[in-house]
Amino acid sequence: VMSLALKNTINLKNVTQQELNTVKEIAGEHFTMSSKFQWYSQQVQDPQLKQMLTQSSTDAKTTATNLINSL
Question: If DSSP codes are grouped into helix, strand and coil, which group holds residue 35?
Fold first, then answer.
């Protein structure tokens, strides 16, 4: 499974207030995705699907956290 998480913080020093608000919104959406993937992973029996959903949850949370930490 390929990880698509944002692995590090990013430099957001030269962005507009509107862009900062968009980053906050995207981070919030990633926290929601993380929760949903985690819930879905608890509903399935197939080990490969469970692992994929769990990894997706982790990746979404990592991305959200790194976006928030970039602000």
Answer: helix
End-to-end CA distance of the chain: 29
Contact between residue 53 and residue 37 where contact means Cβ atoms under 8 Å apart: yes
Closest CA to 63 of 14, 9, 4, 6: 6
pTM value?
Answer: 0.86
Q: Tokens for 48, please give them.
A: 């490969």
Choose among 39, 56, 65: nearest CA to 3. 56
Q: Tens digits of per-residue pLDDT, 13-60?
A: 888 999 999 999 999 999 999 999 999 999 999 999 999 999 999 999
Distances in Å between the Cα of 1 and the Cα atoms of 4, 30, 38, 49, 62 are: 9, 18, 16, 10, 16
